[in-house]
Amino acid sequence: MMNLAHWRLLVAVADEGTISRGADRVGISQSGASQALAQLESSLGFTVFVRERRQVEITALGQRVIEHARIMLGGLQAIRALADDSQGFSGARIRLATFPSLVSSVLPALLRDFQRRHPGIEVVIVEGTDEEVERWLESGTVDAGVVMNPAADRAPLMLGSDGWMAVLAQTHPLGRRATESGVALSELAGEPFILATGGCAVNGQRLMADAGIQLSDVRVTVRDWASACVLAREGLGVSLVPESTLPDDLHGLRVLPVKPAIRRLFGLVCSPAGCASRATQVFMRELATAVAGSASGSA
Q: How many other β-carbons are positioned within 10 Å of the β-carbon of residue 197?
């Protein structure tokens, strides 16, 4: 059965020229996009795209379908803008603070879906350290912010979590063990250490201190998680980084989970200004629905 997701995907693939880039634009996997397009073409009874090695070509009938799809999606956006305007949301702005790693991982799909439903509401992202985010929330500089390990009394919308991982050169002696065995913080404390902070108060040094362990040989301190991985790959030391910040290319690196496992949680909370903003409350409610739907879909 054809639905709006099919039509959005159809237009995205036509615009981007490849199924993979079209899939990225609408926030689904390439295999999921290929299956959805096959279902759509089966329902239509004709081919929309001719798959080439590196791109897709649009058939003559497919071009006409895409033109109609653009009109339909444009009309839907206009209706939604009208609805936002009727509720006083047109021109509303939500200031959202977060730390950089979430901008490129968790948030894009959630924000894209929200702005598709509410084209009249602008979401402005402000990046900062976790300490800066907390200050902005307290002062009301932002309407909402992503914070680390939020307390329950802040009524957070939990967006996810990730585990802390040890990164070291492929040739490091600790790398010989099985991945599932992991590595203890105490085993890393005496190694030449690359301290990566990611602009966050919670980092490798804080994890060690919380466990009653002291780093004995900090060789380099860097702000960027990626830089720590590069230095570890070169054999300059070991490091601790969140799993979501690991590079796509792990060549030359050995990655082991910390055991016992340590996870960082991130949740979205409102500032006093955000609690008083109708647009921000709509934003929070719809993101909560999207997060719940994503969780149930992956269960």
A: 18
- Give pLDDT tens digits for 49-65: 998 877 889 999 999 99
- Residue 241's nearest CA partner among 291, 188, 180 is 188
Is 30 within 8 Å of 19 (Cβ atoms)? yes
Alpha carbons 145 and 266: distance in angstroms, whole number: 10
Predicted model pTM: 0.65
Amino acid at position 6, single letter: H
pLDDT in tens, 65-119: 999 988 888 887 777 767 766 666 666 889 999 887 676 666 777 888 888 888 8
Confidence of residue 5 (pLDDT cuts 50, 70, 90): confident
Cα 205 from Cα 201, distance rounded (Å): 9
Residue 258 near residue 240 (C-beta atoms within 8 A): yes
**Phi/psi-derived region of residue 85, left when phi > 0, alpha when psi is between -120 and 50, beta in every other case:** alpha
Tell me the one-letter amino acid at 23.
A
DSSP state of 215: -
Rg (alpha carbons) of the chain, rounded to whole number: 23
